[in-house]
C-alpha cells in the first residue's frame, strides 16, 4: 500500500504552525514509492544529528560481522575487551560503589545488543554509580562528539565501575552501545567510523551519514535547538561551530551519527527487503534481519526505568519492537527515536517505513505521538 504523505505532512504541519519546532522533514517509503517533504523552516535534504537512531545502524553492522564469522552473539566480550573481565556487580543499582558481589557470568555480545549488559540509565532515584560515570566523562546525557576520550580511554574509565545488574538479567538503556562500538572496532581491527562506512554506509549509498558532517554536506546541517526557562527555543548546537563538524576522538555507537531522511530510508528499505540494498546487494541475511527485529525481552516484571522508555514494547537489537492494536489486525512495527528530535518506524507487514526529522532537545513528544498515530490510522484503514 502507499501511505498518504499529505496526511502525514498536514499532521506535522499543524504542530510546526503551533511552534513545537521551526520545521520538520517527513519521509515515507511505501508501495514502491519514496516521498520526502519539508514542512516549515527546513529543507528536505537537511543534515541532522541522529542521536539514538544511531543504535539500529550499529546493531546491523554487528550482524554483518557475525555473518562473516568475526564474532558470535554468544561470545564473551572479554575476548576483545579484557578490561571488562571479572566484573563486580552492585547488590542493588543504587547501592554504594563498594557494596558488590562477583558477576555470575561474563557479558556477551548479545547482552550488548539487547542492552542487558548490566549498566545503563536509571530513573528510579539517586544512583551513585551513574553519578560516578558522569564524573568520569563517560557521556551520561545528550551525545557530545567533543569528548576528548579515545575508545581505549573511554573503556578504561568504564572498567573502573561495578555493574548495576547481573549480566543478562535487566534491560538498561544506552551505555551498552558505547561498549559495543569499542568491541566492533577491536574485533574488526578498524576504527569504528571506517568500519561503518565500508560495511554499511557505502554499500547502501548513505553518503550524507557519518560521525561527522561530510564536507560536501556542510551547508545542509541545521541547528539543534532546546528550550530555555522561559520555554523559548535557543541553540543547543549550531552549524558553523557545531561539535559534529570535526571527526570525534570517540565515535560513539550510542548516538554519534548525523544523517538525512533520504539516507535513513535507504537503511530502512534494506531491512524491509530482508537485508538487500536498493541495488540488490545483500548486506544481511533474512535470518539476521529477523533476529534484529524480534523482541528479545519477553514480558518480565519491569522497573520504572524500563517502563519510562519502553512502556509495554519489546526490544530487539538496537531498536524497539511493538504492535499497535487498532480496528483491524495488529500492526507490527520496529524502529526507534533520537533524543535530539528524530523518529523512525518500519511496518514489515505493510512493506512501509517512515522517518520524521526535527532538531529539538527534548524531542517534541506531542508531535511524535501525532505522527505515529497518523501512520497507524493510515495503515489500519
TL;DR?
The protein has 381 residues and is an alpha+beta fold.
Walk me through what this model shows:
The protein starts with a helix and ends with a helix. Helix content is 31%, strand content 17%. Helix 1 packs antiparallel against helix 11 and helix 2 runs parallel beside helix 6. 47% of the residues are buried. Strands 2-1-13-12-11-10-9 form a seven-stranded antiparallel sheet, with helices on both faces. With 381 residues, the chain is α+β, with helices and mostly antiparallel strands. The model has no long low-confidence stretch (mean pLDDT 95). The longest helix is centred in the last third of the chain and has 16 residues. Strand 11 and strand 12 form a beta hairpin. The protein has two domains: 236 residues, Beta-lactamase (3-Layer(aba) Sandwich), CATH 3.40.710.10; 118 residues, Methane Monooxygenase Hydroxylase, Chain G, domain 1 (Up-down Bundle), CATH 1.20.58.
Amino acid at each position: 500500500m502507499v501511505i498518504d504523505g499529505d496526511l502525514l505532512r498536514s499532521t506535522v504541519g499543524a504542530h510546526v504552525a503551533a511552534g513545537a519546532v521551526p520545521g520538520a522533514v517527513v519521509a515515507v517509503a511505501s508501495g514502491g514509492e519514496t516521498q520526502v517533504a519539508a514542512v516549515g523552516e527546513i529543507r528536505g535534504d537537511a543534515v541532522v544529528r541522529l542521536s539514538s537512531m544511531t543504535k539500529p545502524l550499529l546493531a546491523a553492522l554487528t550482524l554483518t560481522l557475525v555473518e562473516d564469522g568475526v564474532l558470535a552473539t554468544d561470545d564473551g566480550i572479554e575476548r576483545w575487551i579484557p578490561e571488562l573481565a571479572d566484573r563486580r556487580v552492585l547488590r542493588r543499582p543504587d547501592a554504594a560503589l563498594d557494596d558488590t558481589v562477583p558477576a555470575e557470568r561474563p557479558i556477551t555480545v548479545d547482552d550488548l545488543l539487547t542492552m542487558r549488559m548490566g549498566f545503563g540509565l536509571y530513573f528510579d532515584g539517586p544512583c551513585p554509580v551513574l553519578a560516578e560515570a558522569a564524573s568520569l566523562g563517560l557521556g551520561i546525557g545528550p551525545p557530545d562528539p567533543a569528548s576528548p576520550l579515545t575508545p581505549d580511554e573511554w573503556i578504561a574509565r568504564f572498567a573502573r565501575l561495578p555493574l548495576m545488574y547481573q549480566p543478562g538479567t535487566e534491560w538498561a538503556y544506552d551505555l551498552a552501545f558505547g561498549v559495543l562500538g569499542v568491541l566492533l572496532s577491536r574485533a574488526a581491527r578498524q576504527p569504528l567510523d571506517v568500519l561503518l562506512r565500508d560495511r554499511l554506509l557505502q554499500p547502501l549509498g548513505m553518503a550524507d551519514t557519518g560521525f561527522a558532517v561530510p564536507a560536501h554536506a556542510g551547508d545542509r546541517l541545521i541547528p539543534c535547538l532546546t528550550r530555555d526557562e522561559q520555554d523559548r527555543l535557543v541553540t543547543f548546537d549550531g552549524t558553523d561551530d557545531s561539535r559534529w563538524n570535526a571527526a570525534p576522538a570517540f565515535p560513539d555507537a550510542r548516538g554519534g551519527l548525523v544523517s538525512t531522511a533520504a539516507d535513513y530510508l535507504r537503511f530502512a528499505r534494506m531491512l524491509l527487503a530482508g537485508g538487500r540494498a536498493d541495488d540488490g546487494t545483500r548486506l544481511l541475511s533474512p535470518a539476521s534481519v529477523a533476529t534484529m527485529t524480534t523482541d528479545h525481552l519477553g514480558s518480565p516484571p519491569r522497573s520504572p526505568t524500563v517502563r519510562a522508555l519502553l512502556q509495554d514494547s519489546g526490544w530487539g537489537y538496537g531498536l524497539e519492537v511493538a504492535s499497535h492494536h487498532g480496528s483491524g489486525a495488529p500492526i507490527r512495527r520496529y524502529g526507534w527515536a533520537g533524543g535530539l528530535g528524530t523518529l523512525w518506524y518500519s511496518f514489515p507487514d505493510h512493506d512501509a517505513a517512515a522517518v520524521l526529522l526535527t532538531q529539538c532537545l527534548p524531542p517534541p513528544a506531542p508531535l511524535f505521538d501525532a505522527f505515529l498515530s497518523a501512520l497507524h490510522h493510515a495503515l489500519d484503514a
